[in-house]
Amino acid sequence: MYSLELSLRYSPFPLSIQKKEFDDVKRIYDEIKTAMNETLESSNLIELSCDKVQDKLITVKAKEIISVQIYEKSSVAGGAKRPGFSLDID
């Protein structure tokens, strides 16, 4: 299961959805990046659905998104992998 997480301007809590296939989550990620790059005065709405929670729908304005990330939720250890970037120094 892959998670796509959005951080929104002026919101301390991220929004996230889960997709079963990496290709699905990568396609959505690329669409969001494109929408974030557009410099139109009117902001596009982006609607996201979740594979894990079937009735979960999220709609946000593209201009309010400040970051987007993909990470894999591992079934081992209950998905303990923390999202974001970290340095693994051995």
Summarize the topology.
Blueprint: E1 2-8, E2 15-19, H1 22-37, E3 45-49, E4 57-61, E5 65-72
Antiparallel strand pairs: 1-2, 1-5, 3-4
As laid out across the biggest beta sheet, the strand order is 2-1-5
**Globular, elongated, flat, extended or rod-shaped: what is the shape?**
globular
Spans of at least 5 consecutive residues with low confidence: none
Number of strands: 5
Put simply, the count of helices is: 1
Main β-sheet description: 3 strands, antiparallel
Share of β-strand residues: 25-35%
Radius of gyration: 14 Å
How confident is the prediction overall: mean pLDDT? 82
Q: Helical percent range?
A: 10-25%
H/E element string? EEHEEE
The total domain count is: 1
In angstroms, what separates the terminal alpha carbons? 28 Å
Architecture overview:
This protein is α+β, with helices and mostly antiparallel strands. The protein has one domain. It is 18% helix and 33% strand. The protein is built from one helix and five strands, in the order ββαβββ. It has one helix at 22-37, and strands at residues 2-8, 15-19, 45-49, 57-61, 65-72. A three-stranded antiparallel beta sheet has the order 2-1-5, covered by helices on one side. A two-stranded antiparallel ribbon has the order 3-4. It is globular and about 40 Å long. The mean pLDDT is 82.
